[in-house]
Design goal:
The protein is mainly α. The longest helix is centred in the middle third of the chain and has 16 residues. It starts with 8 loop residues before the first helix and ends with a helix.
């Protein structure tokens, strides 16, 4: 039986980016500190400013605004 990866590629890439751009660059003294860092990365940078190739080099927030 062949097992297929059901994780969407963009989700896998998001975790790779998170690790490379945020969590591999620092150490954390608690789970809460790590949790806050990930939240700030996603909401403060990844969705707001980071361009995405599948959005014509717009951030997710910018791409969403073009739809409204």
């Amino acid at each position: 039986m062949v097992k297929h990866d059901t994780t969407p590629l963009c989700l896998s890439q998001a975790f790779i980016d998170l690790k490379k751009e945020e969590t591999d660059r620092r150490t954390y003294s608690s789970f809460e500190e790590l949790n806050l860092s990930i939240f700030q990365y996603i909401h403060g940078f990844y969705n707001s400013f980071r361009p995405h190739s599948h959005n014509n080099e717009l951030s997710p927030n910018q791409a969403e605004m073009t739809l409204l």
